[in-house]
Design a protein that fits this description.
Layout lengths: L4 H4 L2 H33 L1 H37 L3 H35 L5 H15 L2 H25 L4 H7 L1
Length: 178
């Protein structure tokens, strides 16, 4: 892949190739929640209520992770576009560290506020207990979600560097593609 493929490739295939992975990701996320709800609904109505009350906080965590990912990807792209690979590397490193820190903070804060959050919607102690139990398990993975959202930007940098390292070793292949 050359550095000008976005300028040369037709718009529709380019948009499709970029949008399709995101659509699949959202579909998998939606299916996960549907399947989760189907299994939890078999336990009891209270369990389903607890899951439904915790779900918006899970969405908030995902939204924060996606926001971090977009911001870090934009900053990395800005530096790579300016030809400043050192700053791009620094942005990627800072992004990963900040995502890790924010994942830990979000996990602790969301777990701590969950009993009070649930009490603002229900007085049923069974629902609150189930919601707290479910949220503890779910929010343990906030760190993974935060890092997982940022990882594609970092993988892009690794691919870019691998492309720059491997490409000079195979100049004949580049000439055949041109």
């Amino acid at each position: 892949m050359n550095d000008t493929f976005m300028k040369e490739k037709p718009i529709f295939p380019l948009l499709t190739s970029m949008a399709l992975p995101m659509v699949v990701s959202m579909l998998v996320n939606a299916l996960y929640n549907i399947v989760d709800s189907l299994f939890v609904a078999r336990i009891s109505e209270e369990a389903m209520t607890a899951l439904s009350l915790v779900y918006p906080v899970q969405n908030l965590i995902n939204a924060i992770a996606i926001g971090f990912s977009i911001g870090i990807a934009a900053l990395i792209s800005l530096h790579l576009g300016a030809g400043n690979k050192e700053k791009a590397d620094m942005a990627a490193t800072h992004g990963m560290v900040l995502s890790l820190i924010h994942g830990v903070v979000i996990s602790i804060v969301c777990t701590a506020i969950m009993p009070r959050f649930l009490r603002s919607f229900t007085s049923d102690e069974t629902v609150i207990a189930m919601g707290v139990t479910y949220s503890r398990v779910a929010f343990m993975f906030a760190v993974v979600i935060m890092i997982g959202a940022v990882a594609p930007a970092l993988i892009g940098i690794v691919v870019l560097y691998l492309n720059k390292v491997v490409r000079p070793k195979y100049p004949k292949h580049d000439q055949e593609r041109a």
